[in-house]
Design a protein that fits this description.
It is a single chain. This protein has 331 residues and is α+β, with helices and mostly antiparallel strands. The chain has helices spanning 4-7, 97-101, 111-131, 159-171, 194-202, 220-223; strands at residues 16-20, 49-52, 73-76, 83-96, 143-144, 150-151, 173-174, 177-178, 185-189, 204-209, 212-217, 227-231, 240-244, 254-259, 266-269, 293-306, 313-315. Among the domains are: 29-79, no CATH class; 136-254 and 309-315, 2-Layer Sandwich (hypothetical protein PF0899 fold), CATH 3.30.2320. It has six helices and 17 strands. Strands 1, 4, 14, 15 and 16 form a five-stranded mixed sheet that branches. Strands 12-9-13-17 form a four-stranded mixed sheet, with helices on one face. The longest helix is centred in the middle third of the chain and has 21 residues, at 111-131. The protein is flat. It holds the Pfam family Phage_capsid_4.
Length: 331
């Protein structure tokens, strides 16, 4: 289906893409230095641990003097990914030759286009299965922002909560190293959230409390300018998920999986129509030999992988709104 790549082009803004050779668990290997810490190993996925005399204090290779021997390092690795799945999907659509003849509006001509849309929906379903597989380990924790704003655990969506989520994610450690900040993020929210978010991002509010005042708002247009909002009905009401955009991190976080040789949907038409007397090919759209029926069959291989849960920050919104600091009167 040649239109497929065009149809899924925008999904490349959600996650990267990886082609695998079979249905077995995919593996991502690289050299990743770690100084060791007390992090639960069950939360560290697919981060190879490079150790040995050949590494400096900060994980850098040592300087080798003239004629010197190259020191050895060893590498160990844990689980390959937090979540991954690659599956075969498909369906079949049957109709009769008589129905095709009586089709005056071109319904059956549009079937390939409709099946293409179904294929894209399958790809989206796999992506959100991966994203929504995160657990309480990566949920937003309670904290106090530098300006005194109280951010509850599982806070409701607000620019302040997202700003805190970016900070919290950067402080998390994998193999003893802080993740740090990504260059851009996607914020996945329920449908209908964009207007509320745009209002909060653009607001300029004069707040007065206990005789003091503060001009609030405006700064988020700059501070959160690298956050792209994505609405989708798979996100539960009140929830939000912050994920680094593809290409914004050293290692991939979320990726679509494709099976080598079967990267696009395969659409077949049943061709049991027989042959004309005296030879000659018959179009499969003339109906089958037995019942004058026709059939389309769609096969598509879709999957997604979440390499490490700690790169995601999410909230179900049950913690309530943020609490702004109380201002004291000026002397």
């Amino acid at each position: 289906m040649p239109q497929y790549d065009k149809a899924v082009h925008e999904l490349g803004n959600w996650a990267g893409s990886r082609t695998v050779k079979d249905f077995r668990p995919t593996v991502l290997y690289s050299l990743y230095w770690g100084d060791g810490d007390n992090t639960d190993p069950d939360t560290e996925y697919n981060e190879s641990n490079l150790r040995g005399a050949g590494l400096g204090e900060h994980g850098e290779p040592l300087v080798i003097p003239e004629g010197g021997t190259f020191p050895m390092v060893s590498m160990t690795g844990g689980l390959e990914s937090f979540y991954q799945k690659l599956r075969k999907r498909g369906l079949r659509f049957d109709w009769t030759w008589e129905a095709q003849v009586n089709d005056t509006v071109g319904f059956f001509e549009q079937i390939p286009t409709e099946l293409l849309a179904v294929s894209v929906d399958g790809k989206i379903a796999e992506f959100f299965d991966a994203l929504l597989s995160v657990t309480a380990v990566s949920a937003l924790h309670a904290d106090t922002a530098p300006d005194g704003t109280q951010i509850p655990a599982n806070a409701q969506l607000s620019p302040e909560a997202v700003e805190q989520a970016i900070y919290e994610r950067g402080q998390r450690k994998i193999k003893g190293n802080k993740i740090g900040e990504a260059s851009s993020y996607n914020l996945f929210v329920p449908i209908g959230t964009k207007r509320f978010w745009d209002f909060q991002m653009a607001r300029t509010v004069l707040r007065a409390n206990d005789g003091g005042f503060v001009l609030d708002g405006g700064r988020y247009n700059t501070a959160l300018g690298n956050v792209t909002l994505v609405e989708h009905d798979r996100i539960p009401a009140g929830s939000w998920f912050l994920a680094p955009a593809p290409g914004s991190t050293r290692r991939p976080v979320l990726e679509f999986l494709k099976l080598r040789g079967y990267e696009t949907p395969e659409l077949r038409v049943q061709n049991l129509q027989g042959s004309y007397v005296g030879a000659g090919a018959i179009s499969p759209f003339e109906g089958s030999f037995e019942t004058d029926s026709l059939a389309y069959r769609l096969r598509n291989i879709d999957g997604a992988v979440l390499w490490a849960e700690l790169h995601i920050v999410h909230s179900d919104g049950t913690g309530g709104p943020i609490v702004r600091p109380t201002l004291t009167p000026a002397p």
